[in-house]
Design brief:
Elements lengths: L4 H14 L3 E4 L4 H14 L2 E3 L9 E3 L13 E3 L4 H4 L8 H12 L7 E9 L8 E7 L2 H10 L1 E2 L1 H7 L6 E6 L22 E5 L4 E5 L4 H4 L2 H17 L2 E3 L2 E6 L5 E7 L6 H5 L9 E6 L3 E5 L5 E4 L4 E5 L9 H6 L5 E3 L2 E2 L5 E2 L33 E5 L16 E9 L9 E3 L3 H9 L2 E3 L12 E3 L12 H11 L10 E5 L4 E2 L2 E2 L7 H12 L5 E4 L2 E4 L13 H8 L3 H15 L8 H13 L2
Parallel strand pairs: 1-5, 3-18, 4-9, 6-8, 8-10, 13-22, 22-26
Antiparallel strand pairs: 2-3, 5-6, 5-7, 9-10, 11-15, 12-13, 12-14, 15-16, 16-22, 17-21, 18-21, 19-20, 23-26, 24-25, 27-28, 29-30
């Protein structure tokens, strides 16, 4: 299968620890994939969906305790707590490895140990990296095949002497001789571990079979470990969508954007413009790796090869491109199952058929307070089958980024769109994005701001203060006019409980303004917080949005911003000496401008 001695020795090492019944080297072929899916259907782990309604698609239900990322059991195991920083859970790497080796010992007894070579990013790209994951979960194998370039081709890129990122995973449920398996093997929450080792660039995961806990190419590799690689090597690994936007003249630009959860990230990535002549295409909806090209600009790839998207509220009206992407060749997890073996979820656009099963495998009661589909239920589908896929999504060189957007869910204070005056100002904007709490959340008051810097709080693999400094330092590596322009957007501002901006496809009007600003069109004016659109610069023709609404959506309230600065200063305190002085300087500039 391979002549790479490092890989062969590594696999043999873990074989001795895990003690599996069999070893299977994954080639990524359709035949292999079908065999694994068929075996899961035969064992009751998967259900093949209605071939007429959802061709070549399958349905899975997880254990109740294994439905999402588990941040409390996710650890950055760096040499010191300071290197992990105040936003991460730290554990001593040596102590953690000793602890995990105890539970890894014999963890794959009675199971197959799958060896999956995979490429994060287009095969052969100088922006891509090879990983190899060991797992005992067939669910993980079929999902990693969609989410990465997995199999023989990745092994060929690795070659005889190539280096790989080692990713180790077990559900932690060994089977003794004759023991019957359960439908979803996993460990209780307090026994799960999702560990990143930045110094040795390793990922060790145990006890969970779901999502980013188990698909180790996703958040663990593509963000937590890749962010460390980026810091060491001078590039960016970001929790950002990438879209291409073309104006009526046929000119195209690429935009990257970071939003915390529930802020419309997938909707923006697959947006259908409402203004005539404009087109938006998708490179990716979740992760961007950006490196400087020979031209001094930042070029980006999406390291993933599929979508792992939240299903509820996805419909032909809310997100047509996402909905059309998941009509075939798709894996569904924790949604509802109809009597004719189709899938259903809240917000799909039609009533749930009688006799449907909910995600806990119970007959769904429409009068129940519990949803049919779990709130974090997911679809997994190849990027290539999205109607809005950009032709350049698999380009080895990536795409040049003209603008970077940051945004959160803010009912007040933050205008619809404003532009950073310079790179450092833009880094400051990214460092303080977040969302206001709009209903009772344990430990947080309504209206309280939950900060999520760069939408990376759960995903940065090292001290976030040093991460801010990395962004500042990268801004010095090229000419200022070659750096992307940075903008803040806020689709969620309200006035007397009423949305001021319609959102969804109408966000193309804001993107069109940003596009024109990237061409340095004179359509912006200075404000105390940054550059804002001149009156009339955003096209609202045909919208039920008045000029007065636009004034309110763009309003910069001095008192609100004074409160914002106090919040920011308090938030910055947690980073201590690791906070770059440049961010304090940018904050002071805004403070002075508001006087």
């Amino acid at each position: 299968m391979t002549k790479n001695i490092e890989l062969i020795n590594w696999v043999n090492h873990w074989k001795e620890i895990f003690q599996p019944k069999n070893i299977h080297w994954c080639d990524g072929s359709e035949e292999e994939n079908q065999n694994i899916l068929d075996s899961m259907v035969a064992s009751g782990v998967a259900i093949k969906l209605n071939e007429e309604k959802k061709p070549n698609s399958y349905y899975f239900q997880t254990d109740d305790s294994d439905v999402a990322r588990i941040e409390s059991r996710t650890f950055i195991c760096s040499e010191t707590p300071e290197k992990a920083g105040p936003t991460n859970n730290w554990e001593d790497p040596n102590k953690m490895k000793q602890e995990m080796l105890k539970v890894y010992k014999g963890a794959m007894k009675g199971r197959t140990m799958y060896v999956m070579p995979f490429s994060m990013g287009p095969l052969g790209s100088d922006k891509s990296y090879i990983g190899v994951q060991i797992t005992d979960s067939p669910y993980v194998v079929v999902h990693m095949r969609i989410m990465t370039r997995m199999g023989t081709k990745a092994l060929e890129v690795l070659g005889e002497n190539g280096h790989f990122i080692p990713c180790i995973h077990s559900v932690g449920y060994p089977l003794e001789e004759g023991q019957k398996d359960v439908k979803w093997p996993c460990r209780p929450i307090e026994e799960k571990y999702i560990c990143q080792f930045p110094q040795t660039k390793e990922i060790w995961s145990y006890g969970s079979g779901y999502g980013g806990n188990a698909l180790l190419g996703k958040k663990c590799f593509a963000l937590r470990i890749a962010s460390v690689l980026g810091k060491e090597e001078g590039w960016l690994a970001e929790h950002m969508l990438i879209l291409g936007i073309t104006n009526p003249k046929g000119e195209k630009k690429y935009i990257a954007a970071a939003f915390p959860s529930a802020c419309g990230k997938t909707n923006l990535a697959m947006l259908i413009p409402t203004i005539p002549g404009w087109k938006v295409e998708t490179i990716g909806d979740d992760i961007a790796w950006m490196k400087f090209g020979q031209d001094g600009r930042l070029w980006a790839i999406n390291p993933e090869n599929g979508f792992f998207g939240v299903v509820p509220q996805t419909s032909i009206s809310t997100n047509p491109n996402a909905y059309l992407s998941i009509q075939h060749n798709t894996l569904f997890t924790n949604v509802g199952l109809t009597p004719d073996n189709d899938v259903w979820w809240e917000g799909i656009g039609y009533e749930c058929p009688e006799g449907s099963l909910d995600w806990k495998n119970r007959v769904y009661d429409k009068n129940s307070s519990e949803p049919c589909a779990q709130s974090n239920s997911r679809f997994t589908a190849p990027i290539a089958q999205c109607p809005a896929t950009d032709p350049a999504y698999d380009e080895t060189n990536g795409v040049p980024i003209s603008a970077i957007l940051f945004g959160g869910r803010r009912q007040t204070t933050v205008p619809l769109v404003y532009e950073a005056k310079n790179w450092n100002h833009g880094v400051m904007i990214g460092s303080v994005i977040g969302s206001e709490i709009t209903s009772a959340v344990i430990g947080l008051k309504e209206g309280e701001l939950r900060h999520d810097p760069f939408a990376m709080k759960p995903f940065c693999g090292y001290n976030m203060g040093d991460y801010f400094q990395h962004w500042i330092d990268l801004g010095k590596k090229t000419e200022q006019d070659k750096l992307p322009k940075i903008f803040c957007v806020n689709w969620f501002r309200k006035d007397n409980g009423k949305w001021l901006w319609p959102g969804y496809g109408e966000n193309s009007r804001v993107l069109a303004y940003i596009f024109d600003r990237c061409n340095n069109e004179d359509i912006a004016i200075d404000s105390p917080i940054g550059k804002i659109p001149k009156p009339g610069a955003i096209n609202i023709e045909g919208l039920k949005v008045s000029e007065q609404d636009m004034e309110k959506a763009m309003k910069i309230d001095k008192k609100e911003w004074e409160t914002e600065i106090i919040r920011t200063e308090k938030f910055y305190e947690i980073f201590g000496s690791h906070l770059p002085k440049e961010l304090r300087e940018e904050l002071q500039t805004i403070k002075d401008n508001l006087k």
